[in-house]
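ugh finaly. both done.
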Amino acid sequence: MEQRNERMLIETTRHRIAGTITLASEGYRSRVSDLLNAPDRDFLSLTDVTIEVLDHDGPGTRHAFMAVSRRHIIFAIPAGDAPSTL
């Protein structure tokens, strides 16, 4: 199965997270909404991650990998649609 990477901006109640997700290039699971609504997944896997604590001054931290619990996500958008703040 061919795959593609997409930069995402995710926000939880306490954090703003920017990272890369892997999606199928077409068909099932080729959309972000497919990944967020998949009943067999409790976590979203991200690579090349930057995490900022909301309401906290200072730089964010960088990580090669992170798994985010879907139930903690308030919103998720493609980073190309968001103003760059990271």
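ok and the 2nd:
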Amino acid sequence: MQQIYQRVAGLDVHRDNVVACFRRPGPRGGVAFEKDRFATMTSGLRVLKAWLAERQVELVAMEATGVYWKPVLYALESRFTVWLCNARNVKKMALV
């Protein structure tokens, strides 16, 4: 059986920042999106974690680019289900 997550976030991880896109069911049955940018320093990752928690995110998907994903994963894995994906797969999931 396939599980469907209603409140998900996709992260685009770079050296100096993380771009987060949050998707949730819209008010009239559609889909609503929200985007924000966060620093990759510890304080910025704390803000990202709080931002995701405020939105009651159930699943976080992020791309595995170089080594930049590691601190982000370590900051979020205690609170969220985090999927580390190939960048091509994250983009496909966002289109579904």
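summary for the 2nd one i guess: The two ends are 18 Å apart (CA to CA).
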